[in-house]
Amino acid sequence: MTQAIAYLRTSSMTNVGENKDSDKRQLDAVTSYASKHNIEIVKIFYDAGTKGADHVLDRPGFSDMLEYMLGNGARVVLVENAGRFARDLVVQITGHDLLKHKGISLVPVDAPTYFEEETPTAIMVRQILGAIAQFEKNSTVLKLRRARERIRRETGRCEGNPAFVSIPTEHVQAAKEAKVRGLGLRRISEELAKQGILWMTGKSYSNSSVIRMLNRG
Known about the structure:
Blueprint: E1 2-10, H1 22-36, E2 39-48, H2 60-70, E3 76-79, H3 82-85, H4 89-101, E4 105-108, H5 120-155, H6 169-180, H7 185-194, H8 207-215
Parallel strand pairs: 1-2, 1-3, 3-4
């Protein structure tokens, strides 16, 4: 017997309570479908007072359900209908894609193949979302590039590992003078700091940086 989770959602808290029938109607529809298709409902998750346009990961019930399913054998979610899962089309499609990528099937019991059909609308929404993601990525890259250019103008260098940034000659000379006095690496770093000789970040030189200075010809 296939195991499944029942997911219920009610938009307004005015429709939540013992004398309300939103959750009862949804559960009746889901359990009726499960009974006819030899499906065992092992757990019920309910987002009460949750708007259909709210992203699925912003819903406490959905988040709890996902956590439960990822640690449990159930891989099917039953909902009364696609609109009950999410009213907003983008949220609907992205929510379904999220579950699909985790190996979880989403089944609206009034139209079981709804999310299996690659409709032109669904394809269009995915393409739009992909274009938006690409735009945001390109915008981030451009912002980082401008930041690097600004830092380069201000400091003369930006790229590369800070460990390979050239150490000023006067710092090297001070380190070598401290070494002549018999100081160890940590003491040399402390001595340089007392003289106001610090790494470009404003911190004391590390032991590895001191070694680099002492080995410089």
